[in-house]
Amino acid sequence: MAAVILQAKGLAKAYGGLKAVDGVDFALNAGEIHALIGPNGAGKTTFVSLLSGRIAPDAGQITLAGQDVTALPAHLRVRKGIAYTFQITSIYPRLSVFDNVALAAQSQGARDLAGAVGVALGRVGMQGLAGQEAGTLSYGHQRLLELAMGLALKPKVLILDEPTQGLAAGEIDDFGALVRSLVPHTTVLMIEHNMEVVMDLAHRITVLNFGRVLAQGTPAEIRANPAVQAAYLGTDDAAA
Amino acid sequence: MKGWLFHLAVLGVLAVLAVILPAYHANNLARVLVLAVFATGYNLAFGYTGMLSLGHALFFGAGMFGAALPVTLWGWGGLPVLGTGMLAGGVVAAAVGVLALRTKGVSFMIVTLMFAQAGYLTLIYCNAVTGGDQGLVLPGAARQVLGLDLTQDGSRLWLALGIYAAALAGALGLVGSRFGRVMLAMRENEERSRMLGYDPYTVKLKVLVISGLYAGLAGAAYGVFFGYAGAGFATVQYSILPMLYSLLGGAGTALGPLIGAAVMFWLIDFASGLTNAYLMLVGVVLIVVVLFAPRGILGYVRERWLPWLP
Ligand SMILES: Nc1ncnc2c1ncn2[C@@H]1O[C@H](COP(=O)(O)OP(=O)(O)O)[C@@H](O)[C@H]1O
Ligand SMILES: [Mg+2]
C-alpha cells in the first residue's frame, strides 16, 4: 500500500439545494497519476477546488501528508505543496511569459529565478517565448503556460483541471509524456475528458457522478465496471 | 540599467531647472515635486497594485498634522517632524487598510472615502489642537532642515528635489523587485495570485502602508515647506488629485505621477491666466488624454517607443 499524500473524508459542498459534492471520501497515493472523470456537472471542478482551498467545504476534512489542512486558506495550501491549474485558463495576459512563470517560481523561494523559469518553460517546450506578452500567445500555449506555472511551484500534488482541453493532437502527446515524467516525484490529480489520455496515463481512476464517488480503480477495472458503463462510458464521451 | 540611467537623467534636468528657474517658478516646482511624491506613492497602490483608494487625502493630512503638531505642541524641529509625519501617514494607512481591504473595487473606494471623511471631521472637531478651519501656522524656527532654511524658495526647491529623488528611487527599487512583480500580479489577476501562494490581503496591506508613508512624507513636507497645516488638505479633493496626476502622466509608470503633476499644475496656472473657466479647459485636456492615450502620457510613450520603461 503506497503512502497517502492527500486525503478527503466526507467532503461536501452544496450550492443552494444542489449538492455539487456530496460526502466524498478520497485518497491520493503519493507518486501516482490519478484521473478524475465523470459527466459534465458531476462536481469534479468543485471537488478539486475544495482540495485546493479555492472554496470552503460545508463538511468534511482534508489532510495533506497526514496534516489537517481543512482550515488552511488556499494560498497557504499552495505553499504547502498543492498546486492547482484552472479549467478556464487563468494567466496574467498583460505580463510577459517570463513574469507569469517567475511569479510561481519566486513563490516557492527560487534563488535563481531565471534558471527556475527556464527549466519550467523548457519542460513545456516554450523556452523561446519568455519575452512574449502572455495574452498574445495561442490558446494551446496559454494552456501550456498555465502548466509551466504549476510546475514552477514545485508542488507535492499537482491538480490539473482538464489540461488537454483545446490542445492539438501533437500537443496532447507531448503533454502525456510530460505528466509521466513528473511522477513519482510529484503526485498528479487530473480531471480529464479525453478517455484515451485517461486510460493511457492514469494509474487509478475515480469516477464522480452527481457529486458522489461512483467507482474507483485501475483503468481496466473502471472499463469493466457496469455502473460506470451505464453512467458514463456508454455516452458519447467514450468515443473521444 | 537603462531605466536607472534614464531616471537619473530626468533628475539631472530637474537639478538644472532648480538652478536656472526664476523664483516664482522655482516655488511652483517645489510644490509640484512634493505633490509628485504624494502621487508616486498613490501610483504604487493604484497604478501598480490596482487599489483605487479615495482615502489618500487622509494619509496626506495625517502626514501634515503628524509634522505640525509636534512643532506646535512640543516645539520639535523640521527634520524630526518630517519623520513623524511620514510615520503618521503609514500608521493611518495601516489602520484604514486593515478594515478597508476586506472589500475591493467600488466598495473599497467608498470605504476609504468614508474613512477620509471621518478623518477630516475629526481634524475639524479637535480644533483646540488642530486649529480647526484655521489650521496651524508653523513658525520659521521649525522650518529648518539640515541647514536649509525652508522659508527661502531656493532651499525649498533643493530639499523638494532631494525628497522626490529618494521617493522615485524607492519606487523604482520596489517595482523592480520580486515584490513589485507580485504587486502587478494582484492588479492583473487576484485569484490566480492566490493560487500561486500569495495572500492578496497582506500584499495589498503592505503596499497601502508604503503608499501611506509616501503620502505622509509628502504631507509633512508640504506643511514644513510652506509653513501651514490645514484640515482642507484632508478633503476628498486631495485624494482625487494624485489619482488624476497618475492617470494623466501614466498609471503604473514610475515617472508618470511627476509628469501628471507638472502638466496639471502648469496647465491650471496657464489656463487661469486666460479665463475664469480654466477648470473647463483642464477638463477638456483630461478628456483628450483619456481618449487618445488611455494609459496616460508616459503609458503612451512606453507603448510606442520605450517598452523597457518601468
Ligand atoms: N459557483 C457555483 N454556483 C452555483 N452552482 C455551481 C457553482 N459551481 C458549480 N456549480 C454547480 O455544481 C455542479 C458541479 O459543477 P462542477 O464542479 O463545475 O462540475 P464538473 O467540473 O464536473 O463539470 C454543477 O451542477 C454546477 O452547475
Ligand atoms: Mg469542471
Describe the protein.
The complex is a heterodimer of chains A (240) and B (310). Chain A is of the alpha/beta class. Chain A has a domain of 163 residues: 3-Layer(aba) Sandwich (Rossmann fold). In chain A, 36% of the residues lie in helices and 26% in strands. In chain A, helix 3 packs across helix 4, helix 3 runs parallel beside helix 5 and helix 4 crosses helix 5. Chain B has one domain. In chain B, helix 2 runs parallel beside helix 7 and helix 12 packs antiparallel against helix 13. The mean pLDDT of chain B is 93. At the A-B interface, helix 2 and helix 3 of A face helix 8 and helix 9 of B. The site of magnesium ion has 3 residues of chain A, from helix 1.
Short description:
With 240 residues, chain A is of the alpha/beta class. Chain A has helices at residues 44-52, 74-80, 97-107, 113-123, 139-152, 169-182, 195-201, 219-224, 226-233; strands spanning 4-15, 18-29, 33-37, 59-64, 67-68, 82-85, 157-161, 187-191, 204-209, 212-217.
Strand order of the largest sheet of chain A: 6-7-8-3-9-10
Helical region count of chain A?
9
Strand content of chain B is under 5%
The description of the largest β-sheet of chain A is: 6 strands, mixed
Order of SSEs of chain B = HHHHHHEEEHHHHEHHHH
Most extensive protein-chain contact, per-chain counts: A-B, 27 and 16 residues
Q: Helix count of chain B?
A: 14
Can you tell me the CATH architecture of one domain in chain A? 3-Layer(aba) Sandwich
Task: Output the CATH class name of one domain in chain A.
Answer: Alpha Beta
Task: Let me know the number of strands of chain B.
Answer: 4
Secondary-structure element string of chain A = EEEHEEHEHHHEHEHEEHH
Structural class of chain A: alpha/beta
Ions and ligands: adenosine-5'-diphosphate, magnesium ion
List the strand order in the largest sheet of chain B: 1-4
- Helicity level of chain B: over 70%
Number of extended strands of chain A: 10
Portion in beta strands of chain A: 25-35%
What class do helices, strands and sheet pairing of chain B give? mainly alpha
Oligomer state equals: heterodimer
Low-confidence region ranges of chain A: 236-240
- Helical content of chain A (DSSP H or I, runs of 4+): 25-40%
GO molecular function (chain B): branched-chain amino acid transmembrane transporter activity
Subcellular location (chain B): Cell membrane
Organism (chain B): Fuscibacter oryzae
Membrane topology (chain B): Multi-pass membrane protein
